Amino acid sequence: MSEQQGILSKLIALITYKKKNRPKTFTLAEMGEGQDAGNPNTNDQSNNRKKNSGDSRSNNTENIVQDSVKQQEKIVPGKPRRRALKKPFSPSELKSTRIEGDKVRSDIDSNIEVIKQVFGLPKNKDLIIREFQVGRKRRAFIAYLDGMADKNIINMYILSPLFKVQESDLPEGKGLNSSLESIIETNDTKNQDSIKKVATEILKGNTALYVHGLDYFLTCETIGFEKRGVEAPKTEGIVKGPQEAFGENLRTNVALLRRIIRNSNLITEFFEVGEKSSTTVAVLYLRDVVNPAIVKEVSRRLSNIAIDFLGNAGMLEELIEDNPYSIIPTILSTERPDRTASHIVEGRVAIVVDGAPFAMIVPVTMNALMHSPEDSSLKWQYTVGLRAIRFFAFFAASMLPGLYIAITTFHREMIPTDLLIAIAKAKENVPFPTIIEILLMEMGFELIREAGIRIPGIIGNTLGIIGALILGEAAVSANIVSPVLIIIVAVTGLSNFAIPNYSLAFGVRLARFYYILAGALLGFYGIVLALGGYVLMLVNLKSFGIPFLAVIAPKGRKSKDVILRWPLWMQEARPDYLNPLDRRRQPEIARRWAQEDPDKA
Amino acid sequence: MTKQSLSWLLALAIIICLPLSGCYDAKEIDEEVYALVIGVDEGVQNKIRLTFQYATYKEGGGKAQGGGGNGGDEESGEVDGTIVATIEASSLLEGINLINATVNRQISLMHAKMLVFSEEYAREGVAKYVEPLVRFREVREFMRIVVCKGKAEDFIKENRSFIGSNPAKNIELIFEQSKNTGYFPDVFFSDFYQDLLTPYGQPTAIYAGVNDLTQMASDVGTGEPPLRTEEDYEPGSIPRKGGTKKELSGTAVFDGDRMVGTLSQRETRFFLMGIGEFKRGFFTLEDPNIPGYIYVLEIRLAGEPKLKARFANAIPVIDLELSLDINIISIQSRKHYEKLANIPKLETEVKLHFEKGLRETIEKTQTEWNADIFHFGRKIAGNFGTIEELEAYNWNRHYQEAKVNVKVNTHLRRSGFLFEAAPVHSSTTEGEQKE
């Protein structure tokens, strides 16, 4: 890479005759190139696999040693064989040293040293280590991360009781454990004899306590970092229905779900994904409803992800979805606990990522993406109408510009003569062909949308609307586009916002350009071909093994909540394609009171 | 070559192919002008003289006209937001190409709404000039066929509207008036062409003309004006002033591809009733009880006419049965014809009137032209075993021999907002009149 750049700059220099001796600029030394590869913090957490693969970017201590050995070999030319001879550790040796290093020592000084090493003290300013004496005699220390742990809990329920302890209260040996546990007043304590586990607990915001002489740490729950409260949903706002959304805190999110589904069969499994971030991922399902195969598949996928960092739900979505190349999402992500809960009860699995205000629901089908959380809170007649609008929106958002261009350039006989002449009149002074007009306007619209997100705060929305109006108006009066096209693009844009799923709306936005291309090239014939291809893609999709267009293709048992929504009391079965353990949602007659004689009751 | 790179190559090949075949037929809307009316006259220097009327793309729909005068530019042929251009050529489609040289844009027949033949030309036979339009893909079936008195060119020049500036709408809506009045049939190009070919009957066309607005007599009349109900006007002879000069009234009757005669407005109404296409119309009948007084009825066709055809002693016998719904619009004499006891009498009067009119119209087509424009042949065909037998029989020749029985059922349905109108009282009224 750098060599190539050298040649390139030389070539450019030949043409430009620029001074060749430029001042030295900073370049990032690549691995195996520079002398100092840096000495990052030692970290016992990195696991075995990386070590064996010899990934040079791993910051494991032993690995760096290994790397530097390699580098030394590389630097010395002509002696390739020494590499094999000088191999310092065999894998088994490495393993043994690691385990040795992972054990908690039984003296306080070396434990402090280990903790300091693990967290990179004194460079790292986040970890607080507080040394003190228990019962004025026995040395002890606590370690916690500043900001992650609640200092009030530490002061009042860990430190304060420990300071009040008399020496006589502290027996020697094994008795110490139970007495310590009774002294500490936090709600949860654990014994940890592995440094790695201690480090993980500290990273979560818990506090590690070590008392001299023990061969384990006592971790106390003190998690108390700043978090956002439960707020109203931002992208899935509805009029009628609950107005709370997930936050960034996993525990809160799970609690929100538990509060809705009060059922002991609601299981929350935890997974950790991301080697550097160790992000907790929760998997929630109803044990007596969900098909166990789905849960198995979800946990298989989650536990087999090798990635360094998992920042949000979208990243995980990309890692676990069935068809990464599909432009249509096959995972439903929602920020609404009520919606998540309703899917869990239907027999689906919810995946909640710590730090992401979204829950992912698998497996889903196309129609689930087209449903809105408001659907179930409105009367079914209204919902049917709303769904019709939504399906029209899906159609319009993806195909309207494509159809327009197909009709106006290939099938002019289909336009009513009055309209045709009106369009021709409006287009008379426009110098561009329709395809350029459409692309210009679509580009403008997308620009407004993208810019609208960045424009700060209150002016954002206004500027977006005004921008669209002014842009359209100006484009028409400047004869850049014809007014009919503004309507087409505006209806398309509106329709796109009517699609209830954020990701699906993006997929439709992309598909729109695909149809524009097809319409511009081959007219209706092209659109039909493109639609065929699109439908093929859709039927080919799977969401955790479930065909994406299930119920429609392949045809399943009739559902009362696909495109139409029938009254709630008619929806007796859970989705057939999920094969849930409990198929029946409710008995045949849900409105039992209607069968009764009101006078006899 | 791996499987993946092969599939990439295939995809690439398909993508490269797309622009090769794609866009070939693509044409922007404003690259074409859309001929709304095509007129065919007999040529002088060449076989035919073609007239096209096409919409311009100027804002505001052409020049402002001065009070229904002779607006438009004679030289450019500009007529109310449209251009009327005439050219002589050897054939219809060649004429389009010839005129393209002057129009700057491709003339498209996709939106042609009216095909006008001059009467003179229609009487010579139109089949050879209709055929290329059928074969040519741009022409569509809903183009109307009009035969006009005089030259088609003159008729098209008068095809303007003073109501709105939208030429296409004007042309579309004028044909809709067939449903409101029944004074002319609404003949589609596809029907016309089909009728040319069938052994079942004969084609018709809309009969039209240009009114020079001088038909109205001078304002000074002498004495009482005569009462003339169901006046028959030739197109171009309706006494009126103002408005457009074009007039559609009556039916052009064809025998094969040659025009043989015309039905008047009144006869056209009976003709439309006979074929079941009469929607509604006002009829003024003289009151049989009080001469000089009239009553006005709105007549609607109640359902399709019932048609039966059979052979009796080798003579084709056709039974036509119609039902008409009557709404009273006006009774000048203020007599209580809508009273339950009086209804049958009125119904019978109307029934006889319409039976007579219908019978006369049918007889006219039989005796004068022997042209079965009612398409009775469609029912007669049921009496033949095979189509070859029907063709050998040649219904169109035997139409004149047919005996047609007409039966009209009438039902008085509504009497309007008035019921048993009270007499008008004045100083000369002589007491209460009892019936």
Average pLDDT of chain B, rounded to a whole number, is 85
Q: Percent of residues of chain B in helical segments?
A: 25-40%
Q: What is the helix content of chain A?
A: 40-55%
Mean pLDDT of chain A equals 82
Strand order of the largest sheet of chain A: 1-2-4-5-3
Detail the poorly predicted runs of chain A.
34-99
Radius of gyration of chain A: 32 Å
Beta-strand level of the residues of chain B, as a percent range?
25-35%
Quaternary class? heterodimer
Strand fraction of chain A equals 5-15%
3D shape of chain B: globular
Overview of the structural elements:
- The complex is a heterodimer of chains A (601) and B (435).
- Chain A has 601 residues and is an alpha+beta fold.
- Among the domains of chain A are: 101-220, no CATH class; 250-364, no CATH class; 380-547, no CATH class.
- Helix content of chain A is 47%, strand content 10%.
- In chain A, the strands form 3 sheets. In chain A, strands 1-2-4-5-3 form a 5-stranded antiparallel sheet, sandwiched between helices.
- In chain A, strand 9 and strand 10 (359-362) form a beta hairpin.
- The longest helix of chain A has 39 residues, at 502-540.
- Chain B has 2 domains: 30-215 and 229-263, no CATH class; 265-421, Nutrient germinant receptor protein C, domain 3 (GMP Synthetase, Chain A, domain 3, 2-Layer Sandwich).
- In chain B, the strands form 2 sheets. In chain B, strands 1, 2, 3, 4, 5, 6, 7, 8, 9 and 10 form a 10-stranded mixed sheet that branches. In chain B, strands 11, 12, 13, 14 and 15 form a 5-stranded mixed sheet that branches.
- The chains are: A alpha+beta (601), B alpha/beta (435).
- Chains A and B meet through helix 15, helix 16 and helix 20 of A and helix 1, strand 1 and helix 6 of B.
